[in-house]
User: Fold these one by one.
Assistant:
Number 1:
Amino acid sequence: MFENTVKWLVFILAIYLAFNAVVSVNTPLKRKTYIVQMDRSAKPGYFTSHLEWYSSKVQSVLSKPEIEGQADEEDRIIYSYETAFHGVAAKLNDEEAERLEEEDGVVALFPETKYQLHTTRSPMFLGLEPEDSTSVWSEKVADHDVIVGVLDTGIFPESESFNDTGMSPVPTHWKGACETGRGFQKHHCNKKIVGARVFYRGYEAATGKINEQNEYKSPRDQDGHGTHTAATVAGSPVRGANLLGYAHGTARGMAPGARIAAYKVCWAGGCFSSDILSAVDRAVADGVNVLSISLGGGVSSYYRDSLSIAAFGSMEMGVFVSCSAGNGGPDPASLTNVSPWITTVGASTMDRDFPATARLGTGRTLSGVSLYEGRRILSTGKQYPLVYMGGNSSSLDPSSLCLEGTLNPRVVAGKIVICDRGISPRVEKGQVAKQAGAVGMILANTAANGEELVADCHLLPAVAVGEKEGKLIKSYASTSRNATATLAFLGTRLGIRPSPVVAAFSSRGPNLLTLEILKPDIVAPGVNILAAWTGELGPSSLPTDRRRVEFNILSGTSMSCPHVSGIAALLKARHPEWSPAAIKSALMTTAYVHDNTHHPLKDASVATPSTPFDHGAGHVNPMKALDPGLIYDLEPQDYFDFLCTQKLTPSQLKVFGKFANRSCRHSLANPGDLNYPSMSAVFPEDTSIKVLTLHRTVTNVGPPTSTYHVVISPFKGAAVKVEPEVLNFTRKNQKLSYRIIFTTKIRQTMPEFGGLVWKDGARKVRSPIAITWLTPLT
């Protein structure tokens, strides 16, 4: 009894410490960081610069010192924003913030927000690396000077993925810089890494000074995440890349001819909104064409989301913004980064796996995955004692989770221990088991993870298994007095079917902020992705891991986002005149919705077909995106008109409209009329409304003379009609409009999904459709 009490005390303490680490930065302090958005056009003429005016505004609201004559030594302004956003980040107490919000010229105040990271085969899987050397992505395309800004944990410049051999000089329009510091000097930038900057003032204001002995206060990446995402976007080809022998092949980014600008915004304690905003603002001023942002926070209203506002400003300047959807799946409505001017990327699997097996004493062999490669190898000819520390109840036990301090060495030493997923990182469970003397680990999925398997680079022989296999193994270990097992590792296997599959962890729709905007937009490879790694940390990311590798295999929407960022860079290279919306449209309308067995894409969490709330428009298809035929284009004013449908007050709309002095044109009958590549028809609670019409306009970017016919999938709950059914184009860039009329037949209790396709004989321009009937109010 006492032992169980101690276990639970350790368990509760672990949760308390983890929770405290998350919330401690939000503890009300005397001063907090606020992002202050200013009306740039309201500057009085007697100020020589906007910053001077901003500073004057901040100074005017500061509280008087408590002691007469005592000066306020602290510089209150930590950033000024001038390009994608206008204003400052300032340290203020609550009273000062309230006073500043009332000042003329102040558009809005945003409290500092903490964001989290959304943590070789993919180019060939995506069709970017055909076996022969002739490719549409020719050197002519690669030589276009496209620059991708990566907001992350920095970059490890020594990686071969950032070798600039054969690259042309840095484009003359580039205004970026190579900031130096410990472990990062001017020579670390080159023709591949054209810029590297750090942003830490918001982080330090919230958490205290960075300990420079433990952390590089420079663009150098000691976490690995930023190096991995940057290499996925635009890494140079590296032959013989592998992780401890796994996934051997040539590693290359999606756009190996593109340049990388690294903006380090994430530190040991997280990523803060004032730093992210400063990085976006600086990147746009530097001259990036694409922004890749593999991080996110919670969802808040458009006018309260500083990243959304900065992304809007970037889009106004012609910059394509790609963000990860989040790793909150398979829960519904778990998405982040849902603004329509952001491309929201979910994660899917590839046709490559890393199989491993657990053979039980009964002779039964169960399949799993692993990236283990080490000196400790279990003999396949020998059986080892098997132990599970959990009980028979469905509730999890701290010992079954293999949390720090919960495994009794007297019980697990010399045995293979079964650990349930949850609470602590997967590789950390293996470390706990190893420290307790275990010879191996079987990592069992719970209901939260289902059958989805993610391979890890464990510190001891370990195999991850799905929920069903996990239950079988745990039942055997709990009911057999002399349960035994052994583990085997089978290397790398290609041609896995079915693939792709939507990852269980990939965040899902619907988009509760605006149901009429279908999110995510698209899925891309995000499971077991090989890319460059930092030399500062082992592949498990654990401090005790002394191994050093040049490449690592990671999973998350953090990995899928840079795939789309890199493909967007390729499209920008081929079509420099395309707007961010045109690039997004090409990616979405050419995406595919069937796997390599020719069946509809599946959802890994339930092994049934996925829906547009899971996969958006489908799986990215770069080769088709090059020549989409038709695009759904949007101007910044169109997005502003969409915001005018969102019940925002004039002062809230001003957050988006001040830069270009925008006003509502009232051109959209409802939010679903935004000229978006996907379509979401939302019938209101009022059951008397049975007809709903959406409008779309397509631009011909294919052959000047072309004719498109429409095909639409049937729905149970509604009749869907398109007018006109044929679009006849006579010139390039010609725009033609059509409307989609939804008429309710039988209101459905769950959303219905389908698609609309325009075909010209050579091309298919596909849009996913969701129809939702809101439940009538009682």
Number 2:
Amino acid sequence: MAFSFLRALLLVVLTARASADDGQVTFVSELSSKPAQKLSKYGWYGNVRLQRFNIPEDSAVARWMFSVTKGHNFNCGQHNVTIHIRWGAPPVINPIGSTFPNSTLWSPCLSLILPVTSHSSTTFNLSDPAPGDWYVAAHLPEDDGRIEQKGFPSCSYFFQPQLSIRRAVDTPTLQQGTFLQQTAAPDQPARLKLYVPEFASSLSVSVANCLSGDGVDGGNCSLVLRLGSVSLQHGPVTVNCSGTGCSASLSNPPWDAWLRVVVESNQDNRTVTFSVVSNYTVGCKPKSVGLRADDDLNKLRGNSSYINSTLAGNSTVVTDTVASSKESVSLLTPLLASACVWSIPVLHEEVDVLSVRFTPVNGPNVSVTDTNPTLLTYPLPTQATGGTLNLQLTLNTTNITLGNSSSVVACLSPWVPVLELNHSQPCRTALFGGYGVHVNASVPKTVIRLPFPHSTTWYLTLQLTCNGSDCGNTSLVSVVPEVFVSACVEDCGTYGECRLLRSYSYLYAACVCKAGWNGWGCTDDSTAQSYRRQLTATMLLTFSNLSFLPAIVVAIRRWYITEASVYLFTMFFSTFYHACDQPGIAVMCIMEYDALQYCDFLGSICSIWVTILCMARIRDTFKYTLFMFGTLLIAMSMQLDRKGLWNLLGPVLCAILIMVTTWVYRGVRRRHCYPPSWKRWVFYLIPGALCALIGVCLYIFAETEGNYYYTHSLWHILVATCVVFLLPPKEKERETEGWSRGWSWSWNWSWSWRPRVCGYTLCQSSKDELYTVT
């Protein structure tokens, strides 16, 4: 898959020897490159070019090189390319300063500005980067709303990121309670790692027995101790050591993870030897609530049936819910004195792409006490980071009345739970932040939305808190925590559409807004279009197609029945295509949008094709053959590339070439300009050509998203008007090889038949048409 997308991965092994008491350290360098991608002006997240890099464990330095190259040689001025970098999930950006939906929490990521004229590049270095996936997003400045026709030359810029990594392959490991002798120099820090097991509540790393290489300072450490990695949004814990030693402590360290330890020397040209040791403490291990030793998959299957029946509104399940809640309470009672935290098992269900739902096994109600916290665990896979993590916490006040001084405090945190909850304790771990909420009698429901969450295990801790030391009679309450991953925030609302995007094999979703609405969830109405403006745009774009009615009438009166049917087809589908193409709520679709668009584009180009061929005045047999053959080719090209430039220019140029050829042939044969009448040129051909030229200029150069509804309506009117001017006059009665052979149909609805003798029709002589004005 990587090779199919032209991904290049180069591996260069460089061996470096560093003097240390514990042996020699080997470093390797890995180089990865992504193919160049064309940048777009930012209008929504789909205009962003997203790339994903993986940084392995024990990486010492990561170096990105970003290159931007201009695609054309003509002067485009200077543009600024914005580059966003984030660890663990795609960057959440807001270049246009729009408003985020309510209860949507996000933190800004690192952004770089790269000015570009013809070719520019910049580098970004990061020491001790966090291992895992890193995401790089790039885009041009905000879209100015100009509609660029596909195929015309425009200013294009191509973005290519590259990453080089230097990592140690034999990093020493700190064991619990075991001293390790290390040496640190200014240019060669000591790099170590330690494993933090699950349920660890605290961690400490101590440095002792410092000794300078030359022995001048004796026991002066002059070291810098760092715990953790650099993730741009969160940095390591740093301690400056002095004297004979120092230590760094972490409360709530990340569970089941490798932690980096870096010790640097502050002394110039001096090597410091020291001993380092780590210790962790397990405060308490949670006891499971809800699943007994004899439980099996049948209970999980029963819970799934329970969920489906609840969605269907089965009244029998309500009784089961109450019984399940009472069972959970009964299970909690004997554990109140023996456990420090209760872990509720959670069912993980992948519903669809970027759609994951978590449900407590014993039902939606979760019991919470004031003595010890309740813990729920939500593992989030990598493929779910492209969506939105939603938490909806609801207080169940059916049987219990919660006082005004009591509330249920909740903390949603990644990597490690916060097991001590109160109003003064922040919802934050040692290296990462959390998201705290609470519900009470006055606010029984709260919501949190996290776009593009990190791929890790998320923990939700719940506990009942009171202002006094005793909560009184209310020591056990029930809440309903709903945690799920959705593609977009509330499906982008009324004025937005949730679209699934892809960067190679990685899938993510974003909202594309319409009718002037903006924001991450299309909830910012600062530039929204009013309903009156939406209705006006719909009326103009649809009723402007009625300007084809004069062209249809003129074509019928001049006996161009085939051409009139093409104009009727174009008018019909263009009207309903634009009625369905509107961005707001004033929309009407009589069939699928794609079918309407295809018929509109096909009819528009065929109208131009048949009109120019009709002006050529060729014999009917050749004309209708070209009609059919050209329409088939146009239909094929529409299927291949509907908005391609040559889909319009190709038929137009071919038809003009045929028309000019026939006109020149007739002019040479008659030795007279064709058409011969100056009135035809002044009153018909020149005005029709001007209408067509003005319409094409408006269509190509003047249309923007702001003026589209009236400039495109004017394009409809001009095209229909030029057809009225350019259609040739009615031909004189003469026998042709066309569809009228053998009979004629006059305006008084009479018909006549010419006699046939021995299989031949008696003919009448007729003069050549001189293309005069009648």
Number 3:
Amino acid sequence: MTHLHPAGIKPGRTSCAVSRYRPPAGPRRSGSHRRGFVQNGVISITVTMRILHGRFVQRFPHFLWNNTAGMNGSAPTRLVDPLEDPLPGVGTYEDFNTIDWVREKSKDRDRHREIANKSRQSTWALLRSISDAFSGWLLMLLVGLKTGAIAGGIDIAAHWLTDMKEGVCLIGFWFNHEHCCWTSNETTFQERDRCPQWQSWAELITGTSEGAFAYIVNYLMYLFWALLFAFLAVSLVRAFAPYACGSGIPEIKTILSGFIIRGYLGKWTLIIKTITLVLAVSSGLSLGKEGPLVHVACCCANILCHRFAKYRKNEAKRREVLSAAAAVGVSVAFGAPIGGVLFSLEEVSYYFPLKTLWRSFFAALVAAFTLRSINPFGNSRLVLFYVEFHAPWHLVELGPFILLGIFGGLWGAMFIKANIYWCKIRKSTCLGRYPVTEVLVVTALTGLLAYPNSYTRMSGPELISELFNDCSLLDSSQLCGYSVGNTLGDRPAGPGLYTALWQLALALVFKMLITVITFGMKVPSGLFIPSMLAYYHHDWVIFKGWCSPGADCITPGLYAMVGAAACLGGVTRMTVSLVVIMFELTGGLEYIVPLMAATMTSKWVADAFGREGIYEAHIRLNGYPFLEPKEEFEHNSLAVDVMRPRRADPSLAVLTQDGMTVGEVEVSNSTDYSGFPVVVSAESQRLVGFVLRRDLLISIDNARKRQEGVVSASQVVFTDHAPSLPADAPPPLRLRGIVDLSPFTVTDHTPMDITVDIFRKLGLRQCLVTHNGRLLGIITKKDILKHMAQIANRDPDSILFN
């Protein structure tokens, strides 16, 4: 027996051990072995009917001490029953570890089966069964209510602080600009936002709002408030909740795949993320609150899960709730409950059963209703940029829509490469060591360049609302600056419109560049949606024959909406959910085809430059152990090519089923290996099972504390029956209960594409490789990710966790 090569990965902040912890339960049932073998090139994974029907029993660390009077002359020692005396730490997971999906789902099935059996015995047990079945829906109700309330508060606070950069309301400083002028009778049609109750900082300080000095005062106050908000945001994140920075969606995707990140969905993260999200958006940085709201919703769900034992004690069940919470986050961000459900299904969820679909729909409905009841924007809508178009689109416009899709795909591919390049610079240089300085510099640069242009000065939702607006005869927007005419279709473009278009073109370039360096900073940040604008002239040749005088030829707001969808689709590679979100924004069925054409074109063009979206690119950048379900494995390698140890490596560290002492096992446990295969003997290498290092440590430590006679010379036995020992020998320590007697195995000639599918669909963390029943090596999730990175000509050492 040797202990020279790891059966897992070293734990820590930069690499993490594979751990499989077993919760307390009764003795193991028989018939649980499953085997993999290859015959004539065809893989056959043999799994017993108990596995197929969810009867995979729980393994519980229990200790049977063969300490009889006939052996050493003393009275029999009481057996330790973990059901009565559970061991602390067993059944839980360490930080930066992947959960055991098979065990968690099996544990939930056993729990449900036990509740169902007891419900037939008494009325009280029946009521408990009903309560257990209803608890999931109650939890979804609470998640929707809490997230909707928080989202409403974020919207109100962000709108107020954004307006505070430009002035203050005299009748109440807590009113934003729009609310302050609602009750005023002195507003005009051309200057509907000006009223005596609202004064700019120049008016308060100098007494006038005109002139160069007043402009400079307003400019400086704008920069002051922007820097103050940004400084507070980054300082709070750095001091109290480092996990509150960024979008959160890459980490949410990784967590939903089974990874453990302690504290990422905790209460401090929720509190700081909520506060700093308001500050970051109000500072004027080129970021949005859509992604962070998904993180906020998942934090709410995770905290509420601890109120229900069914979800508190089962990591797989908790991830079903988190999948529904992701739908809730998008529901309150875009005012699109159905789009939120599809977003969770298409973009973030790793395991999405039908039951989760229903509960996601219900939770998104509750959240949308809660936000609508709060009415944060005062327009009876869920979002500030809700629009409603009525003009039909023409078939000839399909070409421009496809061109917008091409632009969106090119922009998405360029943005991902540029942002990842900048993030690598941030991580590898001294820039990453000074996050506060970076945020302040970017905020100052953004404020200096944004203030002179009214379209970059306004907040993201206000800009999108302006662009999505459909011009009417009474509209005073600069984008509707047409010369006087009887009908809107007959009015030629005026000088104000051309000025607005130049400003908008500059705003587009500015937003494209500044968003690259803003996304990924140490503040809560979502992706700003770059928007496009079109204007029209019905005398052009291409419009003759289908654009009659006096009629609305095209809808500029529709082009802005299609351009925004194309750009967001190129960055995130969303398709179905994005179209539904935009449909829910507009409320018009007739615009589904333009949106579908632009979104699909955008994805095709962006995929030509790389198949990763922005979230997958950041997952890879951070080294998270995420097996992308949409990524195909096309290499012809076999399991023997990926397993460890390799041909030139030392042999695999194993434990024998008997013959080892407690001292020898403790020496093995002094390593950083995550677990050890158990074999019949070091010579035969016939596989018996797999035992986790953490379970061994807990078991031996518990035995030394609770049992007399356990010493370093005590023999450790992983079998049902202890071997015969001399009369003066210490009692053996039987640890068969902590051994996984049915570890997933494949043969050395199993194709790696089959192995990767097994890891994806069963959520495995490690798989043993055998040849004719003889142990050869082990494949972990990290090994597969490193192999895939090597095939793609990427650095295998970039995979930090397992």
